[in-house]
Amino acid sequence: MNRPHAQHRPRKRFGQNFLHDSVIIDRITASVGPRVDQHLLEIGPGQGALTTSLIESGCQLDVVELDRDLIPGLLAAFSLSPRFKLHSADALKFDFASLLEDSEEGTTQQRLRVVGNLPYNISTPLIFKLLEDSAIIEDMHFMLQLEVVERLAAVPGNKNWGRLGIMAQYQCRVEHLFDVPPHAFHPQPKVQSAIVRLTPWQASPWPQCDASALRILVKSAFAHRRKTLRNNLKGIIDSTQLEALGIDPGARAESLELTQFIEITNAINV
Ligand code: SAH
Fold first, then answer.
1. Which string of b and e fits 33-52 if b means at least 16 CB within 10 Å?
2. Per-residue DSSP letters for 151-180?
3. Beta partners for 62?
4. What is the tens place of the pLDDT at every residue in 121-142?
5. How far is the CA of 42 from the centre of ligand 1 (A)?
6. 20 to 30 A Cα–Cα from 195, which one of 97, 174, 238, 242?
7. Does the domain made of 12-200 have the CATH classification 3.40.1080.10?
8. Low-confidence ranges of the chain (pLDDT < 70)
9. 259 C-alpha to center of ligand 1: Å?
10. What is the spatial distance between Cα 79 and Cα 174, in angstroms, rounded to a whole number?
11. Which tens digit of pLDDT belongs to each residue from 50-86?
12. CATH 3.40.50.150 placement within the chain
């Protein structure tokens, strides 16, 4: 049952909200600023709204699309572009490092520039997966639900400060670039959206620590937002040790700076 691409009905299951506002599309492309000597990866190209303008730069472009019904349309539109490669796959299971192995012969290995108007239901797990691959990534530009961008770019003491922001900021510079209203999409989502840029640190501004230990610690610290550190971190670190680090055991995780989470991680992980 092959439905023609032109009549593709947007699927909720795949988080499909297609961009159709050319001003927004141009603004995203300008923020990315793709160049001919770069290697881009687009996640969820859909009907090619962003793909069309990215490919104009002449860059090497890999795209990963889950919905098989969209594949014929993407091939028809872009397969004649010599530096375009389509992967009919689930981005959550995709081996991004394999794209570098496939890079054009004779060129030096280049880090990937990742772009995507991401399905809202997979955005958080996908960002966590990409953060694990941050060594092979130059930068990432995503369209996300505004609320998720606010969590990524949050500052300590704010109600949005938590696991996502802490892990993203430990590994990347996070920039909330601009907001996108629902009417830029078809169908219109119920929420506001925003564009965020994540740039993995080349020289980290933070003290070193084990990222997976930090992730586990932060998860525990925020397990119950209203509880104190003393309670949430029971069995992990005691009050005396927290005080020795200059941290009030009666404080909530929400009030701690990223450096303090790193200090706790290093204190328990010796
Ligand atoms: N980039 C397009 C489409 C955005 S909608 C535009 O801006 O118009 C989100 C896209 O992600 C859809 O094409 C959807 O099929 C695709 N998608 C959903 N889940 C995915 C996954 N796990 N892996 C890859 N693509 C996925």
1. ebeeebbbbbbbbbbbbbbe
2. HHT--TTSTT-SHHHHHHHHHEEEEEEEEE
3. 41, 85
4. 899 999 999 999 999 999 999 9
5. 9
6. 97
7. no
8. 1-7, 102-109, 270
9. 35
10. 34
11. 999 999 999 999 999 999 999 999 999 999 999 999 9
12. 12-200
Ligand 1 and 263: CB distance under 6 A: no
DSSP string of 18-59, one letter each residue: EE--HHHHHHHHHHH---TT-EEEEE--TTTHHHHHHHTTT-
Average pLDDT, the chain: 93
> Model pTM?
0.93
Pick among 1.10.150.120, 2.60.40.1930, 3.90.1150.10, 1.10.8.100: CATH of 211-268: 1.10.8.100
Q: How far is the CA of 92 from the centre of ligand 1 (A)?
A: 12
